[in-house]
Amino acid sequence: MKTAQNATQIPAKTWWEMRRLKYNIIVGCIGIFIVILLNIWMKKGTTFDWQFFIISIIIGVIYAIICNLCFTLLWMLDNMNFNNDLVDFHSPKRTFILYTFVVSSCLIPFGIMHLVVDLL
User: Which of 62, 67, 56 is nearest to 34 (CA)?
Assistant: First the structure.
């Protein structure tokens, strides 16, 4: 028989994986925004540069892969810490860690964009 407490608890890995899609959507939207901004910045009074566009998309895909690897590392560290024990579905600590990670993941492309724009 399940108690009310067990009904709201899930494995740590499941907690993280349930939030991966939302994380990917947020980071993906920021990445698309950065690619568009960079290409608009580059276009300034010139013709559209396909080569730069393709390279910026490839860099965006590489960045997305790195973000997902870091996300996986984050839940693996959490899993090692708690041995995949059951955790509260609405864990405030994990939610804070997740959104701190989301914000830092989204700030990195803006820093790269400013670096690239300054180099041009």
Answer: 56
